[in-house]
Amino acid sequence: MKLLVIGTGYVGLVTGTCFAEMGHQVICLDINEEKIDLLNQGVIPIYEPGLEEMVKRNVKAHRLSFSIDYATSVPTSQVCFITVDTPANSEGKADLRYVRSAATSIAEHMVDHTVIVNKSTVPIGTAKEVAQIIQKVQRKRDLLIDFDVVSNPEFLKEGNAINDFMKPDRVVIGIAHPRAAAIMKEIYSPFMLSHERLILMDIASAEMTKYAANAMLATRVSFMNELANLCELTGADVNKVRKGIGSDKRIGYSFLYAGPGFGGSCFPKDIKAFQSQAKAVGYSLEIMQAVEKINVRQKRVLGVKLAAYFALKGGLKGKTIGLLGLAFKPDTDDMREAASLVLIEFLLESGCHLRLYDPAAMANAKRLLPETKTITWCENELEVADGADALVLLTEWKQFRFLDFGAIRAKMKGIAFFDGRNQYVPYEMAKKGFDYFSIGQAPAYAHKPGEEEFSNEIPL
Ligand code: NAD
């Protein structure tokens, strides 16, 4: 089928490439000329494992192309997917200006029956608004062309996007007309060979499903962070509690990790937009208010721990702090709303020197952070450790799992290690000579030489 994917960001590029991989003829369109130029030169503007090879393979096979031109792309496409950004505006509402603009451009150039698919995360009622825009433009063009608007929210996760798209848990489709259902079924049929995963429903329910899914996941994260803070105050260990509750099938192990607060391009803005949709119909989403509040507080937790530790060592001013990982999660270069940004701002305000490293997000981080001599950009973990009074792990990249702690410790000036992702065993870290602080677990202080033999700590 001939498909147009409008908006060539994380979702659009993955969507278009995966559709092409499954044999569809795809044009990926963006208004950002620089992005399209790069793609036409074979340069992938985002970091997403496996994407580059797949893009190149499908371009070579002439199934995938890139364009900035609606006038030539819309008339040749049977289905137009809208995958543009929908950021939160200053009131927390989803800003739909890019969706409206894409809908207008489709309407200006459509020549035949077209299915317009909202894949961007949009509030309930957006499909109706898109239909109204198309009718309005058609009236201006003095035309009457049949069309369908469909809601097909996307659930892929950055860092695992290809796999999520190629083997989805489910594909949610909101339709108002059986004709659109048949077309959507055909588009997704290559993804359903092992078993049917298409869930058809009305449009409002499909639009709501995306917000409900992200709200539920964010709630689990904030719940675990709340629990972690309580664990620290009561002497319990959140990692053990996690295993204890996750083993209950009704709860499950996924998304039960305490950490430095959630970030990314989706959860923070979607929770805001969800609340504002509820408010618009006179309902207060109390649970989402709490989830957001807990997350804002959690993003400050590492800074509070660092300040408390160095309070007895002359304060944070003038200290050198090394940060391992900056992206909001591993396997992505996405820095949007990353917890690292809150900690960095706090540490710079406190007069620290920072040594920063991330395997993929350095370029994006440089764009967001101030140009200052107090930030040193490093090329690896050992450089981060050089002369550092403390290290902080913020993103659990796989390469940080087995660090050479002996070499790291030898490079450091101090011995403090703040683990925002509970990646290491506290007792082991103390044995390696670190004062070790994590989330929701008791701190473990560095053993003095020979002390470990007499330690009565039990590594559980
Ligand atoms: P993004 O910012 O990475 O990409 C959006 C792209 O749309 C940009 O390249 C921009 O130039 C382009 N664009 C804007 N207006 C345009 C227009 N009128 N015509 C053509 N192109 C236009 O955004 P993203 O992260 O891919 O997210 C897109 C949507 O998908 C959002 O609604 C988001 O909430 C949702 N979503 C994102 C993820 C994710 O992990 N990033 C997952 C699921 C859903």
Quick overview:
43% of the residues lie in helices and 13% in strands. With 460 residues, the protein is α/β, with parallel strands linked by helices. It folds into 3 domains: 2-201, NAD(P)-binding Rossmann-like Domain (Rossmann fold), CATH 3.40.50; 211-295, N-(1-d-carboxylethyl)-l-norvaline Dehydrogenase, domain 2 (Orthogonal Bundle), CATH 1.10.1040; 299-457, 3-Layer(aba) Sandwich (Rossmann fold), CATH 3.40.50.
Molecular structure report:
The chain is α/β, with parallel strands linked by helices and 460 residues long. The protein folds into three domains: 2-201, Rossmann fold (3-Layer(aba) Sandwich); 211-295, N-(1-d-carboxylethyl)-l-norvaline Dehydrogenase, domain 2 (Orthogonal Bundle), CATH 1.10.1040.10; 299-457, 3-Layer(aba) Sandwich (Rossmann fold), CATH 3.40.50.720. It is 43% helix and 13% strand. The chain has helices at 10-21, 33-40, 51-60, 70-73, 97-109, 126-141, 161-166, 178-188, 203-234, 238-246, 267-280, 286-298, 301-311, 339-349, 362-368, 381-385, 405-411, 426-431, 451-454; strands spanning 2-6, 25-29, 64-67, 79-82, 114-118, 147-151, 171-174, 198-201, 320-324, 353-357, 375-377, 390-393, 416-419, 435-437. A six-stranded parallel sheet has the order 3-2-1-4-5-6, sandwiched between helices. The longest helix has 32 residues, at 203-234. It binds nicotinamide-adenine-dinucleotide (NAD). Nicotinamide-adenine-dinucleotide (NAD) binds at residues 6-12, 29-32, 35, 83-86, 98, 101-102, 120-121, 154, 156, 158, 265-266.
